[in-house]
Hints:
Blueprint: H1 2-41, H2 46-64, H3 70-73, E1 92-100, E2 106-115, E3 121-126, E4 150-159, E5 162-171, E6 177-188, E7 191-194, E8 199-200, E9 208-209, E10 212-217, E11 224-227, E12 232-240, E13 252-264, E14 267-274, E15 276-277, E16 280-281, E17 283-289, E18 296-302, H4 319-324, H5 329-368
Antiparallel strand pairs: 1-2, 2-3, 4-5, 5-6, 6-7, 6-10, 8-9, 11-12, 12-13, 13-14, 15-16, 17-18
Helix pairs in contact: 1-2
Amino acid sequence: MKLILYILLLLPTLSFAKEVEVDTFLVRKEDELADLLKTLRQSKSDAELKLNNLNFTEELKEVLKHPGSGIFDYPFDKLTTMSTIKSPDGVFRLFNWNTENENQVHSHFCYMVRKGRGGKNQIITFKEDKFTLGPHPDGMLTPNRWYGGLYYKIVPVDIGRKRYYTMFAYNGANRSVNKKILDVFWFKGKSLRIGYPLFQDERDKEELHRRVFIEYSDKATISVNYEAGIEKIVFDHLRPETPNLRGMYEYYIPDMSYDAYFWENDFWNFQADIIVGNDKEKSRREYYIDPETGEEKFKIVPIDWVEPTSGGMGEKHTPAEIENGNQDPKAKKKEKKEREKRAKKEYKRMYKDDRKQRRIARKNAKRTNPRSAYKNE
């Protein structure tokens, strides 16, 4: 009886000791990884970069093999120049980083960890394919054939009983062009599939794409993010600096208007020309018949516009901010003021154009019918 009582009293101590051991292991390994990552970022040549990246990768793979849920729950806050993003439902976690060589060409690395049976983790290695994949691969891919990117946001969506993960990624393609990518992760048994036809085409609304590439000038900064308040993916609308540069994405810049995707009928529907702020949609397209030509046209109509005070749009990320998940407070405050200024300017311009359209419509209506309904406006 005394032996049984002794064992019962000892059990909590053993459990506690095991938890301390797990935490101690991850704390120690995080410090080692942080030192290796710092060394990697300080590489002075391509040869040194390759060696330091190999050392960091080998150490990380050993850590990811560590059994139990610690890999999913431990914050890894010291790994500030890489992503350790976790899916909102806790199904998987990504350990994701990039390197930049002397020619300013980016390479990307990613490991996915899934919870396996018996506390053993499933580790999926991503391999960037720069040779056989084109700049805009549109087929289904696997981790062994991957375009490369830094994932910074995950939005799960369900179709029936099947769950798909909308992935947001950044790719510093080369010295003149950057990419933002919208893609889909889904699982077939233990296998990861990349790409699923969930994105409506901007021009051909009947066509669905497996992924979306948004390419822009390396000198520009754009936002592609999920706005939970309006449940939409909101992103900058891009245009070439001049019309004759169309298709040359190193000259594509944001034009201060925004497009979006909203989830409906089991896919992401495209929506053009929206204005958001205070986590609410601030404009919509309103269609009307031109009294002169009889053609259907549209104008942008504000919806109870309120001056943004919280930034409204998702934060605009530089590559370092995406990796770190942080932004300098002063830069953030300055960017917020600039966004508010642009929003006010856009609001005034929109109303000015609207008033101009109304004046023209009134004038045309009076010519054809002096008793126009516009006289009461």
